[in-house]
Amino acid sequence: MIIEKNQIFREKYNEIKEGDSILTTLNLKKTEEFIFIDLLERNITIFPSALSQLLTRSKCFQAAVFDKWIIPNTRIIRDKNDMPCLINDYCEKNITKIVTKLDRKDCGMGINLWSSPEELNNNVIFGNPVFPFIAQPFVPDSVDVRVIILGDYTESYWRKNFSNFRHNLAMGGKSGEFKLDYHQIKMCNEIMERGKFPYAHIDLLISENKTYLSEISLRGGIKGAKINTPEYLEKINKIEQDFKDNL
Hints:
With 247 residues, this protein is α+β, with helices and mostly antiparallel strands. It has three domains: 2-46, no CATH class; 72-137, 2-Layer Sandwich (Dna Ligase, domain 1); 140-245, D-amino Acid Aminotransferase, Chain A, domain 1 (2-Layer Sandwich), CATH 3.30.470. The protein contains eight helices and twelve strands. The protein has helices at residues 6-12, 34-41, 50-57, 59-65, 83-92, 117-126, 182-195, 229-245; strands spanning 2-3, 21-22, 45-46, 75-77, 98-102, 111-114, 133-137, 143-150, 153-160, 174-177, 199-207, 210-217. The strands form three sheets. Strands 10-9-8-11-12 form a five-stranded antiparallel beta sheet. Strands 4-7-5-6 form a four-stranded antiparallel beta sheet, sandwiched between helices. A three-stranded parallel beta sheet has the order 1-2-3. Helix 3 (50-57) packs across helix 4 (59-65) and helix 5 (83-92) packs antiparallel against helix 6.
């Protein structure tokens, strides 16, 4: 059995067996993600991979899995009990400005800038914090680069907001072509391999000749890209069809 629609997946969930395939991104609620474990335990083929789908959903999971490539001293804050370690660590290292990212927010809506660890802690203690989130040192004078990789197609472009530290285009940023060097391309390929991504949108943060992973997703906006929507969908459809043909 090959399932390519979420509705059919829901209807056939308990009939799926080893040797069957699910060839679609599953539209699961946050409280349903245990389903991925059940499917893997039943040896069901999932495409895109269960790992890539879960990583796309969670910035905190990305921080755990891609620790090698993200901004140093990034921390996952699961609840108030994680704050004392962050304060002590950041103060010892003279880290002042902090960026936080809410776990499941996109388009820059869950990104905030704090002037000090204490300011963040005050909000957590006296405010109305939303857990979990990641906290990482603010990297000034950095270049935000979106990389789109679809099989043998790769393009990259910088994004810059001259009036807001959020550089994504949804928040008013501008864009222009950016040429990746060999090491940056290699890094993107390694990240995709680690997360088992068949295709991806990768956001890089480049500062002082250092390149960090900001985020990765199976899909995302293509505003600012050379590729248009029909071409984009055609390339993804080809990747999916090639996988199906090789089952």
